[in-house]
Amino acid sequence: MQWLCNAKDDVFTSGETLLAAVFLRAAEYGHLNVLQWLHTHWRGNCGVRLIDFAASGGHFDVIKWLHENRTEGCSERAMDRAAANGHFDVVKYLHEHRSEGCTVDAMDNAARGGSLEIVKWLNDHRSEGCSMVAMDFAAQNGHLNVVQWLHTNRKEGCTSLAMDGAIENGHLDIVKWLHENRSEGCTSSAVTEAAKHGHLDIVKWLYDNRRARFASSAMTIAAAYGHLDVVKWLHRKCSEGSSNNAMESAITFRHFDVVLFLHLHSNVKFDLPTGRTVKLPIELQQWVLTNYADKVSSWQFEVHKIELEILWH
Fold this sequence. Notes:
Helices cover 65% and strands 3% of the residues. The chain is mainly alpha-helical. It folds into four domains: 102 residues, Serine Threonine Protein Phosphatase 5, Tetratricopeptide repeat (Alpha Horseshoe); 84 residues, Serine Threonine Protein Phosphatase 5, Tetratricopeptide repeat (Alpha Horseshoe), CATH 1.25.40.20; 84 residues, Alpha Horseshoe (Serine Threonine Protein Phosphatase 5, Tetratricopeptide repeat); 41 residues, no CATH class. Strands 1-2 form a two-stranded parallel sheet.
């Protein structure tokens, strides 16, 4: 850095660019000693991103020093990012010592991170408020206390993405609460997402409480991701039953236990597609050839990489 500071002409020009980048990285990662050295030896300007970056990382001592010793200032993103990452002390400092403020992203993303204390403080001390995204985010990430507070204290509400996200991420308590206290509901893809992620408790709840339509795609995707318990339950409960796609998916993604279950318990005569090229473990490949020889006669089989490594060793 000393050489860059003393460089001249073309080298100095490239050094200027590099020193600005070093200044920004030092602020981002909280290296106050580097910032202080650069401040003494280099008089370049780095723009508002200095405090913005430091605020994102919660580097309070760096922010305070930059505010007191530099002139670049910051932007609204500083408080937005501090709130998003749960740095309450930084949020309050920026509010008290800077005038840039924040945007609705501050409360929205504080809600996303479950920082209820920051959400409450922004509500009491700032006027920007939030958007429907706040409750959507909080629900998706499992922060029931934030969802409840926003419902009681704010008027923005949420969208169907709130329940959809809670379903996808397995937050049954939030799914139930939204069902009982909000009217937005969920979208038609919710059942499929619950099946995809193996959330059997939520699949059951949707069946009992949301009168959700269970298309064969739910079983297909549960089979593709190897969720045997979900496949079994859907087979018992749903009139749509199994599908060719479920068996094909279970074979393709090498879930032998699901393949066996569908083979033994489904009333559907599987009509597997022709002309496939699949990589299967040897055991599954042999089983498919034994039980579905006529249906996979046009398939090209490749040994799964793990099996090859075992054979080679």
